[in-house]
Amino acid sequence: MKFTVTEEKITSELPAGELTISGDENEGFRPFQLMVSSLAGCSSLVYKRILAKQKVEWDEMTVEADVTRSEDEVNRIEKVTLLFKVKGKDLNPKKLQKSLEIASKNCSMVQSVVPTIEVEEKVEIVDA
Fold first, then answer.
1. SS3 4
2. Which PANTHER family match (predicted)?
3. What single string gives the DSSP state of each residue in 55-93?
């Protein structure tokens, strides 16, 4: 990956398009947003793959991320809570949670930040 740095932003040309990073969220993605997106995206992809292998059918899934940052100068990410909301018929909450735990252990992005950043993953079944 190659990044071009200017006064206003940082850009990179990727196969899916241009990625723009900036401290100003009106100009591009803030670095912490990209970090949280990486955690949510990786976990979701692994989770979907595990559910498919287990033949668990679901209709819709969303992930809500809650971020806790330190109050010091650096303002580092201390904790990310990912709440997976899964909609479908006859879903087993214990099986969904167990599968999410397996996904977390197999997500390269989550495993790259633990234990520096606490990552908590929960699942909630939404009425279909």
1. strand
2. PROTEIN YHFA
3. T---SEEEEEEEEEE-SSSS--EEEEEEEEEEE-SS--H
Delineate the domains of the chain, giving CATH numbers in brackets: 32-126 (3.30.300.20)
For β-strands 4-5 and 10-14, DSSP reports them as antiparallel
Q: What is the rounded average pLDDT of the residues 39-56?
A: 97
pLDDT at residue 73 in the model: 85
7-43 CB burial, b ≥16 within 10 A, e <16: eeebbeeeeeeeeebbeeeeebbeeeeebbebbbebb
pLDDT at residue 60 is higher than 80: yes
Residue with tokens 């819709």: 60
- Please say whether the beta carbons of 118 and 80 come within 8 A: yes
CA distance 83 to 94: 15
